[in-house]
Automatic annotation (TrEMBL):
<keyword id="KW-0193">Cuticle</keyword>
<keyword id="KW-1003">Cell membrane</keyword>
<dbReference type="GO" id="GO:0005886">
    <property type="term" value="C:plasma membrane"/>
</dbReference>
<dbReference type="GO" id="GO:0042302">
    <property type="term" value="F:structural constituent of cuticle"/>
</dbReference>
<keyword id="KW-0812">Transmembrane</keyword>
<dbReference type="InterPro" id="IPR051962">
    <property type="entry name" value="Cuticlin"/>
</dbReference>
<dbReference type="Pfam" id="PF25057">
    <property type="entry name" value="CUT_N"/>
</dbReference>
<keyword id="KW-1133">Transmembrane helix</keyword>
<dbReference type="InterPro" id="IPR056953">
    <property type="entry name" value="CUT_N"/>
</dbReference>
<feature type="domain" description="ZP">
    <location>
        <begin position="1"/>
        <end position="202"/>
    </location>
</feature>
<dbReference type="InterPro" id="IPR057475">
    <property type="entry name" value="CUT_C"/>
</dbReference>
<dbReference type="InterPro" id="IPR001507">
    <property type="entry name" value="ZP_dom"/>
</dbReference>
<protein>
    <recommendedName>
        <fullName>ZP domain-containing protein</fullName>
    </recommendedName>
</protein>
<keyword id="KW-0472">Membrane</keyword>
<dbReference type="Pfam" id="PF25301">
    <property type="entry name" value="CUT_C"/>
</dbReference>
<keyword id="KW-0732">Signal</keyword>
Length: 202
């Protein structure tokens, strides 16, 4: 027998007797049927979920390293001089020293010295390091090496460079000025996170 809607029927007979061992006219028998309906109900609920807010990262900005350019009297050390001279003589051995920042900055930056010019304070100028960081002279149509004025640059650390020189000057001038540019590069922007070899050779 099919039941619609689908469900389960259970039936039985219940006898109500008035005597524990005998049947009498007052006894009654009842047929009982129970129907259990099966049903599929769709129930719903909802909740609102907010997007997770990003957690702020505590950070302190690292300032750009400050750079210095000094000319010192030459010493036996190949990386520095002994003091910054006030008065020198043509031919004296000196060290041109460029430094930037501190050891913390050395883990982040590389430096390159370039575009160095010597001038007499007036119109006379000579380029001793060109824009690519090479030692050169502007008196030539092409950039030629002139170790007589300044030696090749050496980078003992990523933020330190030096070059050795014999003192020279312009004719009829007692003062000579030097001006250089320093290019700072992020190590993370370089190959393998290290300073280019051409900028960092002992």
């Amino acid at each position: 027998m099919q039941i619609n809607p689908r469900g389960l029927i259970m039936s039985g007979v219940m006898v109500v007797a008035h005597h524990s061992t005998l049947l009498t006219y007052r006894d009654r028998a009842y047929r009982i049927e129970c129907y259990y309906r099966e049903d599929n109900n769709v129930v719903q609920t909802e909740m609102r979920v907010n997007s997770q807010s990003p957690s702020p990262l505590a950070s302190e900005p690292i300032p750009l390293p400050s750079c210095q350019y000094n000319v010192e009297m030459s010493s036996n050390s190949s990386q520095s001089g002994t003091s910054s001279p006030a008065i020198v003589t043509i031919g004296d051995s000196v060290v041109h020293l460029w430094t930037c920042g501190d050891p913390v900055h050395s883990t982040i930056y590389c430096m390159q010295v370039h575009s160095c010019v010597a001038d007499d304070g007036g119109s006379e100028k000579v380029t001793v390091i060109d824009e690519s960081g090479l030692i050169c002279m502007t008196t030539s149509h092409r950039c030629s090496t002139d170790e007589e004025l300044l030696s090749s640059l050496t980078y003992p650390t990523p933020l330190r460079a030096f070059a050795r020189s014999r003192v020279f000057k312009f004719a009829d001038k007692s003062d000579i000025n030097f001006a250089c540019q320093i290019r700072l590069m992020m190590k993370q922007d370089t190959v393998n996170g290290t300073c280019p070899v051409s900028f960092f050779e002992p």
